[in-house]
Amino acid sequence: MTRENFKIILHFLVLIPFQVLIANHVRLFGFINPQICLLFILWYPLKKDYSGFLITSFLFGIIIDFFSNSGGINAMSYLLIAFLKTPIMKFIFKDKELDLKTFRYYNYSTSQKMILIFCLAIIHQTAIYSLEYFNISYTPTILYKSFANSLFTTFVVVILITIFTPSYKQ
Amino acid sequence: MQFILYLIQKYRNFLLFFVLELIAFAFTIQYHSYQKSKFINSANTFSGGFYNNITSFRTYFSLEEKNKILAKENSELKNLLSFKKMTPNVFLDSVNILYKQKFKYTAAKIINNDFHKNNNYLTLNKGEKDSVTVDMAVINSKGIVGIVTNTSANYSSAISLLNTKFKINARLKNATFFGTLIWNGKSHQTAQLEDIPRQAILSIGDTIITGGRSAIFPEGIFIGEIKHIKYEHNRYEQIDIKLFNDIKNTTHVYLIKNLEKQEILNLEQTAHD
């Protein structure tokens, strides 16, 4: 097993229990809860096979669905942001030839990282709430909750990614 | 043919994404019809077992509080029993005079409780081994909690009262006007009563109980009291019910099996045919 595969499994084993046992019980203003599992998508090595990334993200989402009784909502949302991650990164980091093999978060500014995390969070949250409400008449509620949740998620995830990502070149 | 293979090769990641999204979407559609959400639910051994272990650890810290609640419930039941002995003409709905049991109660513990979403579910620590079946009612001493929707050998999941798909027959305690209890997804302390006939006279504080018109809940289980009435266009537009039960903090529940349910359903089926 390579070091990267080991890391992916470790993220699986740590992030899912953390999300379902702790993060899902955080209720700021009654509905805001951080989606810590976004870190799984952010930390997944870019140089790995893209189809493997999609399948792993789908499995990751479906396991959260098993714990949350939520059908395939999380699977759809995680798969969506996994699919969009690279194009969004290329757009935000203004790097059309983003070198996936040597990519490191510490090479980019905090504001760029925050925009990336917020973009992924808002897509993820809008997908989750849209699929959960499944009713067009709830659009204002969906948008309001998605936006509030994404802001808080961005705040928490930026802190965590700063703590757990080395700030020096290895 | 070669061109098709070339296209598949070129867009393989998009195709994989599309196929996986379709699978997830199929699960999501099933989720929106709660009777059909057989595959993705927390009643399986893996997630059920995980929640069970965590809950065993977590409840250890609230034993004293839970003991107090159970002792209070016990004293209420003893009072009810002594009342029954003193007045032989009064019998509980659940047991008839010939000791022919109509409802069977099974104690269970909630090992996972969602209350913040639009469609909330509960996971219980009793399953098929304890004779738990789909459509059993879930209640506690204060009122209704939910209905069992999926079972595995050791665990079951139930649709919570706090679920926008939850609907049960309810009525006023002091009058025989029936309606439907629903939850609009806004507050975990308030449910809504609809389809109440316009001639019904309602007032704030009236108690709402289960109607007993379905084979799931026995009649007379407490739900809540009327908190707000909106009467417009000569009909009841909205009736808010303040729930007696705080589902958010509920741990110990009872599962009710209607032993005559199949007989009722068979009879209804014959009547429809």
Give the overall average pLDDT of chain B. 82
Overall tally of structural domains of chain B: 2
Instruction: Tell me the fraction of residues in β-strands of chain B, as a range.
Output: 25-35%
Euclidean distance between termini CA atoms of chain A: 21 Å
Structural class of chain A: mainly alpha
Largest sheet features of chain B: 6 strands, antiparallel, barrel
Q: Care to describe what's here?
A:
The complex is a heterodimer of chains A (170) and B (273). Chain A has six helices and no strands. Chain A has 170 residues and is mainly α. Chain A has one domain: Orthogonal Bundle (Arp2/3 complex 21 kDa subunit ARPC3), CATH 1.10.1760. Chain A is globular. Chain B is α+β, with helices and mostly antiparallel strands. Helices cover 29% and strands 31% of the residues of chain B. Chain B contains five helices and twelve strands. In chain B, a hairpin with a 5-residue loop joins β6 and β7. The termini of chain B are far apart. Chains A and B meet through α3, α4 and α5 of A and α2, α3 and β2 of B.
Summary?
With 170 residues, chain A is mainly α. Chain A is 67% helix and 0% strand.
Highlighted features:
heterodimer, A: 170 residues, mainly alpha, Arp2/3 complex 21 kDa subunit ARPC3, B: 273 residues, alpha+beta, Thrombin, subunit H, 2 domains, 5 helices, 29% helix, 31% strand
